[in-house]
């Protein structure tokens, strides 16, 4: 028999940025299930030193990065002496470029993952992307850099991973695709009357009906900004115009997204609502691997519902379409304004429906410029944070 066929499958060496978060913890779970396929070689977080130290002890990684430099000494005391600790945003970028790694999974919430993502691409690493915000802010730059370096962008977001799976092996190319259809759970307020939305509390917004996720994405799911961000993310990942990206509400979150082809056929990808599925596919691609994940039991699925989003009551989708169609720096502004508004809502400074207002007002005040340079995008992002903070009536919360 051919030796090449008998050879053990390649073991991916993965750097995981945002290891202490929801996606980070699911990635560790996938790595635990597939030790012969996935080896974690670097971990990074912002400041959760106890959780990071426990992950270092479990995985045996020898290199970590911590963005919050004030906590490095505390981490030093908790990990073995032969573990290298890199610090600050530069430390994250250095970890993302480490020689030994072949893939970097970015699961940092918000846009702090952008510089490490670009460093990873520059160093020739494949990028598994959970952090949708970086593609919304700088999709043109990230995709051009990946193409120039010949590295792959592997979607981890369940919707984009579903589309990636539906398109995988499809030889007809983009011209045979008629629409990408992203599914949305509709969030906890899907059926609420519009006049009750202004009174939504933080606790209510943090109760997602189908997914367990970090705070920011859970609020984004409640406003539907998450789906708006995903529309723009899809535009960059799949090179499909915004006008061909649609959203359908599917409360059970079993169909993760669909591709409609020009002959009218639709391919959908389904699985349980568990982020381990898309993470595993992204990290074992181009192969499918038997792991410990359980398939759907169709006998127990009562029904699958689909409905139109309530565009007028949840304006995030319209704002996203406007940002994506206009392009240039407007998507970066859309994203940054949303980050500020979500922080302000979490801090109790603004109401739930103010999130839409703050993002809309910030977008309408912006003079869109081309987004082909990183400087232009960073400048638009900083402008949007200042402007959104003022529309939210808060001191600027973060840069
Ligand atoms: N959760 C999901 O199911 C899901 C699904 C699809 C896509 N996503 C996307 O994946 C990303 C992560 O979401 P999540 O739900 O996992 O968030 P999360 O639970 O809030 O975790 C965020 C992670 O990012 C780290 N982090 C934050 N700021 C950082 C910085 N400046 N430098 C380094 N690390 C930093 C945090 O570290 P500390 O713990 O130290 O603060 C933590 O590890 C988001 O972009 C989200 O939209 C998430």
From TrEMBL:
MF terms (GO), sorted A to Z: 1-deoxy-D-xylulose-5-phosphate reductoisomerase activity
Gene3D superfamilies cross-referenced by the UniProt entry: 1.10.1740.10, NAD(P)-binding Rossmann-like Domain
Protein's pathway: Isoprenoid biosynthesis; isopentenyl diphosphate biosynthesis via DXP pathway; isopentenyl diphosphate from 1-deoxy-D-xylulose 5-phosphate: step 1/6
Ranges of residues in domain DXP reductoisomerase C-terminal: 270-386
Keyword NADP: yes
Amino-acid positions noted as binding NADPH in the UniProt annotation, renumbered to this chain: 20-23, 133, 214
Family statement drawn from the similarity comment of this UniProt entry: Belongs to the DXR family.
Protein name stated in the entry: 1-deoxy-D-xylulose 5-phosphate reductoisomerase
């Amino acid at each position: 028999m051919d030796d090449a066929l008998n050879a053990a499958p390649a073991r991916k060496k993965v750097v995981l940025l945002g290891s202490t978060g929801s996606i980070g913890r699911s990635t560790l779970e996938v790595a635990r299930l597939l030790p012969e396929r996935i080896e974690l070689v670097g971990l990074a977080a912002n400041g959760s030193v106890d959780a990071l130290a426990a992950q270092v002890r479990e995985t045996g990684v020898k290199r970590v990065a911590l963005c919050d430099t004030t906590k490095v000494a505390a981490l030093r005391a908790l990990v073995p002496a032969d573990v290298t600790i890199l610090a600050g945003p530069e430390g994250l970028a250095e970890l993302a470029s480490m020689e030994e790694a072949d893939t970097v999974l970015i699961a940092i919430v918000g846009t702090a993952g952008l510089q490490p993502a670009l460093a990873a691409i520059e160093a020739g690493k494949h990028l598994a992307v959970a952090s949708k915000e970086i593609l919304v802010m700088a999709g043109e730059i990230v995709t051009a850099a990946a193409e120039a370096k010949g590295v792959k962008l592997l979607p981890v977001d369940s919707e984009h991973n579903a589309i990636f799976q539906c398109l995988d092996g499809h030889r007809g190319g983009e011209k045979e695709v008629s629409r990408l259809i992203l599914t949305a759970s509709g969030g906890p307020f899907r059926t609420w009357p519009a006049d009750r939305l202004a009174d939504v509390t933080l606790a209510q917004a943090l109760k997602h009906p189908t997914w367990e996720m970090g705070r920011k994405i859970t609020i984004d799911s409640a406003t539907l900004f998450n789906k708006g961000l995903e529309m723009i993310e899809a535009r960059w990942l799949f090179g499909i115009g915004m006008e061909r990206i649609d959203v359908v509400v599917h409360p059970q979150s079993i169909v993760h997204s669909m591709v409609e082809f020009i002959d009218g056929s639709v391919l959908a990808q389904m699985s349980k609502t568990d982020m381990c599925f898309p993470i595993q596919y992204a990290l074992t691609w181009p192969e499918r691997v038997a792991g410990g994940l359980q398939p759907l039991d169709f006998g127990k699925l009562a029904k699958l519902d689909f409905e139109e989003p309530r565009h007028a009551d949840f304006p995030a989708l319209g704002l996203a379409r406007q940002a994506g169609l206009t392009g240039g720096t407007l998507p970066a502004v859309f994203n940054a304004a949303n980050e500020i508004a979500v922080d302000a809502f979490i801090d109790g400074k603004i109401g739930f429906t103010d999130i839409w207002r703050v993002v809309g007002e910030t977008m309408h005040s912006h003079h869109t410029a081309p987004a082909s340079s990183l400087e232009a995008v960073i400048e638009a992002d900083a402008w949007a944070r200042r402007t959104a903070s003022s529309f939210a009536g808060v001191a600027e919360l973060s840069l």
